[in-house]
Specification:
Transposase; Tnp_DDE_dom; 18 helices; Transposase_InsH_N; 14% strand; alpha+beta
């Protein structure tokens, strides 16, 4: 049941009058709350029965303070309990016991799980900005981080075996188990084991088991696909089984099954959680699970204003456009966005600049994996349409394509490169050196030069403070 704010002033409350400046953030917020918030706005989020909650006016105002000051829930709990300025801004009396972090979390969940709550929040943020309640120096940063999955990664044998067992459980629920007994060759799917017990060091036994599991899985899938009116949960289970049965194997012309080398693209790593993926944040940092991309705002970029979660194998920067749009829907206009090399998407950057968003984004330095001359050591003239190699050979390219933001590939002839005294420092290819002109080569070149300046270094350091 919704609680009511206690705004009856006591003698101790009068002590604060005049001591908190009328131009301060706390006084301006208090005035705005009195004029714009009331319990009736939040009534749809609460029941009319049960135990009375703390007033949502208090908790909602606390969220606004968190948005501006960057307080965590625990920090907000402490501030609302001991800081008179916070109590004053909340419109609460000085003997107010504060808002505990659990209540704050619960009310936030109610707010953002409801379309009404989201509308209130977005409208409130917009109104609050108009009267200057949010710091104009809010720092907006875009970044990503790995999230470990809650399930263990499974090997191919375990996934197929457990996938078959999962499908059989659905079939039993829908009274289709008799059909499965005629299809399957193995008889151990009802045993309480993760995968069959064999001599795992014996390659012949492993190959035999793999073939049996794959053929059982595909037979089960094909049989169910012939049925009419398959329930959605069973349909999803057989689709998953078919995928895990085929993603790591090859079926030869004579019908034998063998494991393929390498890793399938977008490979499922667990049938318990089929959205988990294998990924890496750096070449040495591996992760099984998910990747979150976020945009933060508030003081020192400490408040999340947009978030997207995807499989761990998704490249950084994949959701940059979605996050900017999500932040806007949440009432946050981003005047300047900070990010690392993963977000140097100049097509998106140019589009957003036209809409009024500035960027402080690094572009990656040009490198050559073989250790030779990098692209930066070739003189690229975008106006003349020429590329000059370190030994002075010049190649032409079509400037009309670069002006249309199309990628251009420039190839130096094999005979030129193979006879060049600098070849060992440039390329190991017998076909000659290739230079790719990026669709936004001009912007990248300008950014690389700007990155060398003290102005950029000082500005970019803000997202590391």
């Amino acid at each position: 049941m919704i609680g009511k704010a206690d705004r009856q002033m006591s003698f101790s409350d009068y002590w604060l009058l005049g001591k908190i400046s009328e131009v301060s953030y706390y006084h301006r917020l208090r005035t705005w709350v009195f004029n714009n918030l009331n319990e009736e706005m939040f009534q749809p989020l609460f029941s009319y029965y049960g135990r009375e909650s703390i007033s949502p006016v208090y908790t909602f105002t606390a969220m606004l303070i968190q948005f501006e000051k960057g307080y965590s829930d625990r920090e907000m709990e402490e501030e609302s309990r001991f800081d008179d300025r916070i109590k004053y801004a909340l419109t609460a009396p000085r003997d107010f016991d504060g808002i505990d972090a659990v209540t704050l979390c619960d009310h936030r969940k109610r707010l953002f799980n409801s379309e009404i709550g989201k509308e209130i929040f977005i409208k409130t943020i917009s109104q609050a900005k108009e009267v200057g309640l949010f710091n104009k120096d809010n720092l907006h940063i875009i970044d990503s981080f790995m999230i470990w999955g809650s399930c263990a990664r499974q090997d191919t044998y375990t996934m197929i075996y457990q996938g078959i067992k999962m499908v059989l459980r659905f079939m039993k629920f829908y009274e289709m188990e008799d059909a499965s007994k005629k299809i399957l060759k193995r008889t151990d799917y009802e045993e309480n084991i993760k995968k069959p017990k064999i001599a795992w060091e014996n390659e012949k036994e492993k190959a035999k088991l793999l073939e049996e599991l794959v053929k059982d899985a595909l037979s089960l899938v094909e049989n169910i696909k012939t049925k009419k009116d398959i329930k959605d949960d069973l349909k999803k289970a057989i689709e998953l089984l078919e995928r895990v049965a085929l993603q790591d194997v090859e079926i030869t012309n004579d019908g034998h099954v063998k494991m393929i080398e390498g890793t399938a693209k977008d490979r499922i790593i667990s049938v318990v959680d089929d959205e988990m993926r294998h990924g890496r944040k750096t070449s040495s940092k591996l992760s099984d699970g998910y990747k979150a991309e976020i945009i933060t705002g508030g003081e020192k970029g400490s408040v999340v204003v947009g978030i997207e979660v995807d499989g761990a194998n998704i490249a950084d920067g994949e959701h940059m456009s979605d996050l900017i749009e999500q932040s806007r829907r949440n009432g946050v206009d981003i005047d300047k966005l900070y990010g690392d090399c993963a977000y140097s998407d100049f097509e998106e950057i140019e589009k957003r600049k036209e809409e009024g968003t500035d960027f402080c984004i690094r572009v990656p330095e040009a490198t050559n994996p073989s250790g030779g001359f990098s692209k930066e050591e070739f003189k690229i003239d975008l106006e003349k349409g020429t590329v000059e190699c370190p030994n002075g050979h010049i190649k032409q390219f079509d400037t009309e394509k670069t002006q249309k933001h199309e990628q251009v590939t420039v190839k130096f002839r094999a005979e030129e490169c193979n006879d060049c005294p600098l070849k060992d420092q440039c390329t190991k290819s017998k076909k000659g050196r290739t230079i790719n002109i990026h669709p936004y080569e001009k912007e990248i070149q300008e950014q690389r030069e700007y990155q060398k300046t003290d102005e950029f270094k000082e500005d970019y350091a803000k997202d590391r403070m």
